[in-house]
């Protein structure tokens, strides 16, 4: 700095710049060594090697580690029926199994995306559907299994179920969306006799809100009724699912229905006919609302005892004795306010041909319960008209103190006459 001109600094800077491009020989060798060391570190990080043993950071070293990571899964998925199969039976054919591993996912669905419920076994070795399959339907199966090292293997297949040549359906009551009385069972009558009742009953689901146990009982081989132990509670909503499509009800005969219906329980009305006293007491929601004089079955044609459910209502109907075993004893073409209580012909109905003094004093009918009425049923003040207008399908009519036997549970919708212990057998 001592007296050197300012311009000398500028010249010296240029010289220093040139000097910086010519590093000492020893320094250059040091930089090369440092770069080589960095490359070695980088190679170690990417390759996973390191340490004096020469093994990688995984459980298996060197070349073995790469082979494990890229090896195929030992799990093998097998699906029956085979891919592309046609005319497949709707029950007992679909199975998914795994060997060398465990099933983790099984999904079966039809062309509309509806899934088939099923369950993988506890050991993961197999899967089977919870229910039968539908007929004439294409299904897709997707299954995944995993081996002990966590490697997955998948399989996808399709197949089509058979087209049934012989079929059956179930005619049911009550009607969808209806409001019925507390005694109304679900009653299903099949168009073909069923020889595998367990399979058919399993395909029908009856649920109630509020919840209550509901059980089915077979009457013969073509009728299945469902009811709770006691009368339904007022306001209960009952839903019935008929998953009969594809059910083999008898050899070579398959169901075709897949539908749901529901109904609601209305107010409680139970009417008790005392055949000896010739009166009927109507109780609604636990309170007596009316007592009506009646005429029941004559001594030679008594009325059944027991709990009976109103299954049909007719403002006017024809009653012909020949249809119920009484020959030509009567044929009345305009019986008013008639409500069916049994399949065999028991009704509670209006009676205009007996004198007014008969009701409450004598039993003169052929087994029905008669209430005073007028021909044509036009007078709403008559006892028969009042009872007809205040009754709904599913209401209960109980007959007691008649000199007859108890009505059979299958004679009408009258399963309430069977003890619960027998119903659930």
From TrEMBL:
> Which SUPFAM superfamilies did the record assign?
L,D-transpeptidase catalytic domain-like
Bilayer-spanning residue ranges: 31-50
Superkingdom: Bacteria
Q: Which InterPro entries match?
A: Big_10, LD-transpeptidase, LD_TPept_cat_dom, Transpep_catalytic_dom
User: What pathway does the annotation place this protein in?
Assistant: Cell wall biogenesis; peptidoglycan biosynthesis
Q: Would the keyword Cell wall biogenesis/degradation turn up in this protein's UniProt record?
A: yes
Segments forming domain L,D-TPase catalytic: 269-400
UniProt-annotated stretches for the region Disordered:
1-25
- Write down the Pfam families for this protein, in alphabetical order: Big_10, YkuD
What's in the keyword line of the UniProt record?
Acyltransferase, Cell shape, Cell wall biogenesis/degradation, Membrane, Peptidoglycan synthesis, Transferase, Transmembrane, Transmembrane helix
Q: In the UniProt entry, which residues are flagged as the active site?
A: 349 (proton donor/acceptor), 368 (nucleophile)
Asked whether the keyword Lyase is assigned, the reply is no
Protein name, entry field: Ig-like domain-containing protein
**Species name for this entry?**
Streptomyces chengmaiensis
Upper classification of the source organism reads: Bacteria, Bacillati, Actinomycetota, Actinomycetes, Kitasatosporales
């Amino acid at each position: 700095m001592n007296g050197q001109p300012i311009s000398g600094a500028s010249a010296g800077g240029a010289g220093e710049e040139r000097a910086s491009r010519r590093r000492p020989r020893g320094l250059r060798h040091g930089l090369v060594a440092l770069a080589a060391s960095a490359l070695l570190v980088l190679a170690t990080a990417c390759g996973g090697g390191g340490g004096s043993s020469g093994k990688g950071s995984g459980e298996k070293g060197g070349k073995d580690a790469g082979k494990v990571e890229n090896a195929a899964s030992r799990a093998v998925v097998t699906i029956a029926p085979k891919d592309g199969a046609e005319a497949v039976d709707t029950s007992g054919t679909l199975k998914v199994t795994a060997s060398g591993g465990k099933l983790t996912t099984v999904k079966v669905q039809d062309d509309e995306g509806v899934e088939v419920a099923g369950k993988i076994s506890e050991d993961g070795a197999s899967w089977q559907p919870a229910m039968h399959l539908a007929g004439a339907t294409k299904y897709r199966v997707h299954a995944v299994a995993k081996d002990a090292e966590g490697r997955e293997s998948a399989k996808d297949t399709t197949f089509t179920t058979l087209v049934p040549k012989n079929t059956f359906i179930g005619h049911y009551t009550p009607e969808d969306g209806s409001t019925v009385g507390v005694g109304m069972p679900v009653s299903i009558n099949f168009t073909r006799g069923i020889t595998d009742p367990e399979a058919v009953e399993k395909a029908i689901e009856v649920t109630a809100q509020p919840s209550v146990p509901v059980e089915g009982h077979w009457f013969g081989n073509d009728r299945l009724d469902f009811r709770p132990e006691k009368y339904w509670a007022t306001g209960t909503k009952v839903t019935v699912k008929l998953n009969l499509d594809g059910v083999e009800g008898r050899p070579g005969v398959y169901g075709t229905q897949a539908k749901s219906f529901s109904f609601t329980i209305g107010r409680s009305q139970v009417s008790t006919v005392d055949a000896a006293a010739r009166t009927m007491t109507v109780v609604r929601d636990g309170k007596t609302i009316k007592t009506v004089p009646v005429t029941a079955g004559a001594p030679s044609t008594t009325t059944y005892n027991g709990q009976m459910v109103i299954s049909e209502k007719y403002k006017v109907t024809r009653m012909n004795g020949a249809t119920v075993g009484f020959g030509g004893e009567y044929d009345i073409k305009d019986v008013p306010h008639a409500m069916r209580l049994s399949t065999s012909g028991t009704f509670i109905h209006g009676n205009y041909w007996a004198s007014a003094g008969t009701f409450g004093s004598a039993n003169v009918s052929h087994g029905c319960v008669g209430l005073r009425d007028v021909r044509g049923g036009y007078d709403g003040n008559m006892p028969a008209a009042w009872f007809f207008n205040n009754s709904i399908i599913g209401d209960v009519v109980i007959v007691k103190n008649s000199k007859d036997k108890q009505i059979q549970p299958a004679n009408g919708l009258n399963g309430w006459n069977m003890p619960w212990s027998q119903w659930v057998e």
